[in-house]
Specification:
Chain lengths: 463, 202
């Protein structure tokens, strides 16, 4: 971090911005230095091709880490059946080999979803700028990193120059205070926020999450919170780093060590908004008032508490697509499929929470349920804790890591009309397969849906 | 990139809010590793039902799409912008855009034009009526057949890039190479742990 003389009270976002300005290019516009980029198979091929067409090689190679996640099968992956997926993954490996960029292959235990492995490896560090050709890159903001999703042209720009032209965002402070009830977690907080402000509610803003609830959240829960910031329209979601952050990172493979660690922590402790910093918008949430959330429609802001009903003024199109009626209660709705995984909820704490509900119970007749760990290391840890045995005994499928049914680019796809209780982040039309119906919820709620065959208030199963 | 200065065209009305990038280009088509030829997959699910507005012969050849709020929300896939361009769309007019989509569009010479809702409604009515619009990024205005001209704001930097068809990468390399190097020298001193080779290869 460059030392920047800041006299006026500053927000964390503005500190991160100021520390990465390479050149001011206009009013509120600058070239920002990019410290880290995560690369996956879907958004990068055209960027590598573009670089080659320019006769360029990457400006730097060390700041990048590549892994395949979107198109990878989550079973039988010795031979990838889909020739397009096989070719796309092979192309990523070849592009990285040619460019000298580190690539974690499918048979490496560290392979997994970009937003799971970055933190896991200590590649994600406070105070850095991190980009990825994936909209859920705000996940890394949980560490106090300025992280945001970019398109393929921007990937090419980072490969070629290590900077990106950016416009300074407005700031939004989301203060969450109070104690969450049993059965309620970070997924319910973020769904509540999205429902409150809308899918475009934070467009143009960088969100910082603060308050006693956030301070008490684990790093994995903070990642869930920041991950879905884009579903409220904001590319950037931040939590200031604290002792929880440092404890998570200490000893991670790519985190600094020894004297460098001490020096880094000193710098990271300054990464916070001043108490008197002014934000463009302020939102407050009362954690104690949050119930388990379930989406009913085809946009993530179409979400209600488990005790709630589809709004009376719901639009015709989402109702028709979801086969629901206005004023219909959401609890008790029969489901066909359950998906537990994704960059939102594919970490070990998510699997522990779901296994806690699955333990001693069984997936309801006629329901297909799958658990897809977020990375090979999450899978290994879950197996060491016996979570896989709990899931298997309960009738869940236990898969290999990848994005899977969150984006349905591999062979994990639902059929038209199938209804899925899903821990993923988007309930868009067709997101889990053509005509498939997605209900977003927490891992505990998804597990409760699996064992009852219906959208169920998980609090009734906690005893 | 393809320059964008002035465009006169019919406009396709699609006044639905939250048209996300999964609707614009469903994820299963992201297995293609090329930028070109994606138009045939655009709006695949919507076009599977007969009568989708994009295929309405009344709008044949239209290069402007008038869409609802938060157009292009969701995924960062640049394929959404490429697919629209491949359909012949050069400008989307909406009350607001998904931010990543808007950036991707600008990078490819596809103008994401945000208008306040009253002005947007006026433009939508003209599109519905089958009248052409003239969008000028040079004068930052939309001229309607009924004689009205609607001004709009656009980021100065992005406007200059689009009008001239400039390319970010060439410009950065030409103008800012020394500033980048200077930044790096400073960061090596201030945050040396970011430059430790051992950290990169865990």
């Amino acid at each position: 971090m460059r030392t920047v003389a800041v006299t006026a009270p500053s927000t964390l976002y503005h500190r991160l911005w100021a520390a990465h300005v390479v050149a001011e290019t206009g009013a509120g516009e600058a070239l920002l230095y990019i410290d880290r980029m995560l690369i996956h198979e879907v958004s990068s091929p055209q960027a590598f091709a573009g670089l080659r067409d320019r006769g360029l090689v990457p400006y730097r190679t060390a700041p990048h880490l590549a892994v395949a996640d979107h198109a990878v099968p989550t079973h039988d992956r010795g031979a990838i059946a889909d020739p397009q997926a096989r070719q796309q993954i092979a192309l990523l490996a070849a592009n990285c080999a040619a460019a000298g960029i580190e690539y974690l292959p499918l048979d490496d235990a560290r392979q997994g979803i970009v937003h799971v492995i970055g933190p896991e490896q200590g590649f994600t560090l406070p105070g850095t700028t991190i980009v990825c050709g994936d909209s859920h890159s705000a996940t890394h903001g949980a560490f106090g990193a300025l992280a945001f999703g970019i398109g393929t042209s921007a990937i090419e720009c980072v490969l070629a120059t290590q900077v990106l032209p950016q416009k300074k965002l407005k700031t939004m402070r989301v203060t969450i205070d109070g104690v969450l009830a049993p059965g309620v977690g970070a997924k319910d907080i973020i769904l509540t926020l999205i429902g409150r402000i809308g899918a475009a509610g934070a467009v143009g803003h960088a969100i910082e999450y603060v308050g006693s609830t956030v301070a008490a959240l684990s790093m994995e829960a903070r990642m869930t919170l920041c991950n879905m910031t884009i579903e409220a329209g904001a590319r950037v979601g931040l939590v200031a780093p604290d002792a929880t952050t440092f404890a998570y990172l200490a000893g991670r493979p790519r985190a600094p060590k020894d004297a460098a660690w001490d020096r880094a922590v000193m710098a990271w402790q300054a990464l916070r908004s001043d108490a008197d910093a002014v934000f463009d918008r302020d939102i407050h949430l009362d954690a104690a008032a949050i119930a388990p959330q379930v989406s009913w429609g085809t946009s993530p802001d179409q979400v209600i508490g488990i005790d709630g009903a589809v709004p009376g003024d719901a639009g015709a199109r989402p109702l028709e697509y979801m086969d629901l009626a206005a004023d219909q209660g959401i609890a008790g709705l029969a489901i066909d499929h359950v998906f537990i995984g994704s960059c939102t909820n594919g970490r070990i704490e998510d699997l522990r929470a779901a296994a806690g509900i699955a333990r001693g119970r069984h997936v309801a007749a006629g329901v297909r349920a799958m658990v897809v760990p977020g990375s090979g290391l999450v899978k290994r840890q879950a197996e060491a804790e016996g979570l896989d045995a709990i899931f298997r005994a309960a009738g869940f499928e236990w898969r290999d890591p990848g994005c899977s049914l969150c984006v349905a680019m591999n062979d994990d796809r639902l059929l038209p009309g199938q209804r899925c209780a899903s821990t993923s982040n988007r309930n868009f039309e067709g997101r889990q397969g053509v005509g498939a119906r997605t209900h977003l919820m927490s891992p505990m709620m998804a597990a409760a849906a699996a064992v009852t065959g219906r959208i169920t208030d998980v609090r009734a199963l906690l005893a | 990139m393809m320059p964008f200065d002035v465009l006169t065209s019919l406009a396709i009305p699609l006044p639905e809010d939250n048209i996300d990038t999964d609707i614009i280009l469903p994820a299963r088509f992201l297995l293609h590793t090329e930028k070109t030829g994606l138009g045939r997959f655009a709006f695949a699910e919507r076009r599977a039902r007969p009568g989708f507005v994009i295929d309405d012969p009344r709008h044949a050849g239209a290069a402007i799409l008038v869409a609802g709020a938060n157009f292009g929300c969701g995924s960062s896939r640049e394929q959404a912008a490429w697919a629209l361009l491949d359909l012949g769309i050069r400008c989307v007019i909406a009350p607001g855009f998904g931010e990543i989509f808007a950036g991707n569009a600008i990078s490819n010479g596809l103008l994401p034009l945000a208008l306040p809702v009253p002005a947007w409604r006026h433009v939508l009515a003209e599109a519905d009526a089958g009248w052409p619009l003239t969008v000028s990024l040079v004068t930052q205005s939309v001229a309607l057949v009924d004689g009205e001209t609607i001004g709009f704001d656009f980021d100065a930097g992005a406007r200059e890039m689009m009008i001239n068809g400039w390319d970010d990468i060439s410009m950065i390399r030409a103008r800012h190479a020394e500033a980048i190097a200077a930044f790096e020298r400073q960061q090596r001193q201030d945050a040396p742990w970011l430059w430790d080779r051992a950290m990169h290869h865990g």
